[in-house]
Amino acid sequence: MTLQEQIADAKVIAVLTIDSVENAVPLARTLLEGGIRAMELTLRTPQAMECLVRIVSEVPEMLAGVGTIIRPEQVRAAKANGAAFAVSPGTNRTVLEEARQAGLFFAPGIATPSDIETALEFDCSIMKFFPAETSGGLPYLKSMAAPYSYLGLRFIPLGGLNEGNLQRYLSDPLIAAIGGSWIASPEEIRNAQWDTILKRAGTASRLAAEA
Fold first, then answer.
1. Among the CATH numbers 3.20.20.70, 3.40.1010.10, 3.40.50.2000, 3.50.50.60, which is that of 3-210?
2. How far is it, in rounded angstroms, from Cα 50 to Cα 47?
3. Is 142 annotated as catalytic?
4. Catalytic residue chosen out of the listed positions 11, 79, 98, 128
5. Given this model, what pLDDT does residue 127 score?
6. Model-level pTM greater than 0.85?
């Protein structure tokens, strides 16, 4: 499958902040056991890249990407360390150009039509809709994306997504997958609460499959 197809097949991307390298592999294996096959490691801790290296090496069946990319050097590091994809909060042209030059699949964050058009300049076909719920949710996204419908764009909403609304999003053809930051909090990861995370991953996976 293409990377776009892998993301759509995964349906749920766990969005994670890890501050302990030792927890990276157990977390990835727990998510896989719960049916979550894609994860985004946010670059909000110094350990994030090393966590990515561990997961890519030891849990190759996990589709592992990097998020919160805001500088060109982070693009280069993500590519060098084996990230399958990268995500940003916004549409920084310098970052987008670096991703294009590096050949790294990139989903920039969009919240306005101007953001979409900036992303289109760099051939992005999947974009992160962020922050989803506080921006107006699915009705807003559908209205905003309507002028570009002939382009076949798809979106990954993040921000305010949870077990109560993920099916509503996934049932719309605009949505490639949803970002799930609720699946494992930094505190739960830090404290190795694998049973709690496994249960939440399993629920998210089941609801996504039913959507």
1. 3.20.20.70
2. 5
3. no
4. 128
5. 98
6. yes
